[in-house]
Amino acid sequence: MPTKSTPKQATSKASPMTKVNMAKVFILWLPFAVLVTGLSLFTYVAVQSDMRQTANNLPTQYAEDAVTALNNGAPISEVAPTYGINMAKSLDVVVIVTNKSGKVLAASGQLNGTPPVPPTSALNSASASGEDAITWQPDNSVREATVIKPFTTKSQSGYVIAATSLRLVEQNESNLTKMAFVTLFGTLVASFLLVMLPGTRDLIQ
Predict the structure, then answer these.
(1) Do residues 162 and 60 lie in contact, with contact meaning Cβ atoms separated by under 8 Å?
(2) What is the spatial distance between Cα 203 and Cα 199, in angstroms, rounded to a whole number?
(3) Which end is more exposed in the chain, N or C (fewer Cβ atoms within 10 Å of the end residue's Cβ)?
(4) What are the φ and ψ backbone dihedral angles of 30, each rounded to 5 degrees?
């Protein structure tokens, strides 16, 4: 009696053609990925740099106005009145006037009870170039956009230091980083899926 032959179950194997197609898709997508990544990084760096440079605008204005006032004979106490601004908490611009050796003559702000002074190297750099713009960290939790300008009057010479907190700028930079990452990731995924479409591949090839 003849025996019935049991049909062999079909085994699913990945088609070599599928692998080749995916390889082609990746090769076609790679230039787009490089271009998108490069443009994203360029835009991110440009925007971040602009945000940081813009933070110097108010300190520059305050420092220039203070030097002009001193050159016109205004007393130091008027240029940097004792407001007692707490630099650890306030976003106000603080003006500090020092003599040539860096000793504080007047200050509108303080940190931990006393007006801080930037490093001597920053004062020397301002003296040599006429102005120095730095990111100053007088305390672990305090970062300031700072502009230093030297001044010379008939009776006194020294430095005007104008500084403002970078807290909001750094918060905005953090938000920008998150947005840039999400946008880049989404764009890369979308472009890869687009390249996978047969019609798109035909146009590119």
Answers:
(1) yes
(2) 6
(3) N
(4) -55, -45
Only one residue has tokens 């090839």, namely: 205
The amino acid sitting at 191 is S
Contact 160, 97 (CB under 8 A): yes
User: Sign of torsion, CA 170 171 172 173?
Assistant: positive
Beta bridge partners of 5: none
Rg of the chain over all Cα atoms, to the nearest angstrom: 31
The per-residue b/e assignment along 68-107, b for 16 or more CB within 10 angstroms, e otherwise, is: ebbeeeeebeebbeeeebebeeeebbbbbbbeeebebbbb
pLDDT in tens, 38-83: 999 999 999 988 888 899 999 999 999 999 999 999 999 999 998 8
Q: How far is CA 91 from CA 41, 64, 97, 150, 167, in A?
A: 30, 19, 19, 24, 8
CA within 13 Å, CB half, 79: 27
Q: Is the model's pLDDT at 34 over the cut of 90?
A: yes
Q: Among 149, 138, 146, 148, which residue's Cα sits nearest to residue 169? A: 146
